[in-house]
What we know:
It is a single chain. Among the domains are: 1-87, Alpha Horseshoe (Serine Threonine Protein Phosphatase 5, Tetratricopeptide repeat), CATH 1.25.40; 193-268, no CATH class. The chain is 74% helix and 0% strand. The chain has helices at 2-14, 18-31, 39-51, 55-64, 67-72, 76-86, 90-97, 109-119, 123-137, 142-154, 158-171, 181-189, 194-211, 216-235, 239-252, 258-265. The longest helix is centred in the last third of the chain and has 20 residues, at 216-235.
Amino acid sequence: MWLGRLFQAQAFMGLGRYNDAIRLLDAGMVAGGGGVIPPYAYQFQLDSLFLSGRYKECLAMANNLSAEVRSDRPELAITAAWDALYSGDPSVVSHWLAPGSFSRYGWEPDLFEGIESFLKGDFAAAETQFRGMLVSSGRHISDPGRWLVQALISEGKLKEARQVLDEEVSAFPADHLDGGETELWLRWNEGSRAALVVSRFDAILAKKRAEAPTTVQTRALLPITLARTAAVHRAAGQSAEAARLKAEALRLAPSSWKPLIEDVAASR
Length: 268
């Protein structure tokens, strides 16, 4: 019963029919009569709530999940963390950073705190937090390493950013899980001509647009990708396209991110 229902729910999500996906999964949970519910059913429900902009409902569901479910599917914490960042409520973010919170499942709270600092424009604090994660781990970790590169770029520390990125590429050769966006953004900040990178940014943006309807982290970070693409188009003299992309980024981003979006779109 569940396999077909999960495939259909995922298809609904790909079509942007999130309410249909939620109703289908809810019906399966009722029909199951208290039987075992697969972790992906909770994942698709939580993801659908976030992707449809129902942030309060997403947080309420996350808070009500049992510890067993959270342990079985730690990726649920990633959706919940992005939802907290999109909520626009500092008290919600503080709740997710508190000892014993859901953020302890699946997503390191230090990473969550560093990303929050980055999105607020406190790049020095973000750099400290991401460096601390790399030092404490004693090895390269792709997520904090990639975010450290972005914080260093934002601080204008391009040589350090290149050194960290080169080390990360050596440890994680598969484009750092972001389709090469961080590397391309660094290259452009290092002085590459906009005309040489604009088509690459367009391709990355097109790929992320295709992923965003079903992938929470891609959708969550889409405003930043849009703002970077806008900056490159503006530098290439394509002001109308730059303005359109910036407007879309501002529309999709939480209000607390908008100063960052403005700065990125106007950079270099």
